[in-house]
Design goal:
This is Glycoside hydrolase family 28 protein. The chain contains five helices and 34 strands. By secondary structure, it is mostly beta strands. A hairpin with a 2-residue loop joins β8 and β9. The termini are far apart. The relative contact order is 0.09.
Length: 467
Amino acid sequence: MKKYILILFVFLLSVQITAQYKPWTSSKQPLKEVKTLKKQIKKPEFRKVDYLITDFGAVGDGKTKNTEAFKKAIEKCNADGGGRVVVPNGVFLTGAIYLKSNVNLHLSDGSTILFSQDSNDYPIVFTRWEGMECMNYSSLIYAYEEENIAVTGKGTLDGNSDNDNWWFWCGATKYGYNETRPGRQNPARAKLHEYMAQRKPARERIFGDGYYLRPNFVQPYKSKNFYMADVLVKNSPMWNLNPVLCENVLIERVKVISHGPNNDGFDPEACKNVWIKDSYFDTGDDCIAIKSGRDEDGRDIGRPAENHIIENCEMKDGHGGVVIGSEIAGGARNIYALNNVMDSKNLDRALRIKTSSSRGGTIENVFFYNTKVGAYKEAAVRFNMFYEKPGNHIPTIRNIWVENLTVDKGGKYAVLSAAYESSPVTDFTMINAKMTGVKIPYKVDHMKNVNLKDVTVNGKPLTELKP
């Protein structure tokens, strides 16, 4: 009897999940959803009390290490009920900074926080590395289970990375690696994959010194109400802005310029209610890449990336402008990109969705609206279900809406898609798109329910996408 009840429950659950999926029939629907979502995302408020780091012993000469001064100022601010920890004019060298609840780390105009190149200045913490949980170096700015935290002001966050510091750990000769130098991440990366596949407890996956897994730049983890505004972020060891499992994230007027390996600009990972606007990205990897965890970790935790707005941003160099994946095993839904501008001969794709059957998960409800693209190299819209190795978890991509897209100096393809026959890209709509300078209008295999309206490539109407 219990067996039949369980079967009935699973059946009803599958019916419910299927019933919940409803593709958009008009752009009015996602635009209404965006309006509602904006009302839910709010920046945190802080006490109007300032804590100047120089009052805690900090020296802005670019040489004195101020890790302890930052720690004391932040802890005092937190203990008192919150406020701003203010960085004045000067260059303040430091190791990892840990943000506590109700603290706004504020960089005055003309200030720079310069991060140490010594890995000993970054304690081992619980983190994610390429979508896999482990114990590794703290990100340069880190928080864990904190609330109401911010990094603001017109100063500079300098990760102090180059081909002689951090970057060469990636193992690529173009970033300074050679066989005479100690340090290459490849063996540790493979070991972390092995631990994840074995489902070894995350806190027992211990890395750090001797493993060469680079830290990310800014990583609030399992935190609520994270705000970032106005700062310049540059020279990151790896991913730049990487909130993980956070809720209510607001980023505005931030500039990220960082051309090292895996230097993604903004990687919200398994986060809910995220809004990034009026920001600028010129990066060595994807400008914005939405993620939800890799393979077993992503599926086991089961937290999708959901309810993200990307608005009024400018993207230059990067593997992709707006990207979903590849660490997307937890799925993604309700992703809205509006009024963005992209233009660079080094930009590979405008909208890119990349996953694989080692990931699985469902990517749905992606709205790409009012986008102006100058140049790109590979494709304006790219779907790929064969990114990295295959597995036994066939992904789903559905309800993708592209409207009001202009491309002036297109690359190889307008639309490029590779999907499984058993799981075609489903409900793809493109309306009012004008693309010029494109070599080949499209190359696709398995797509279902494609709707093209007022789409032209090199002045010629594009009315269908056939394999």
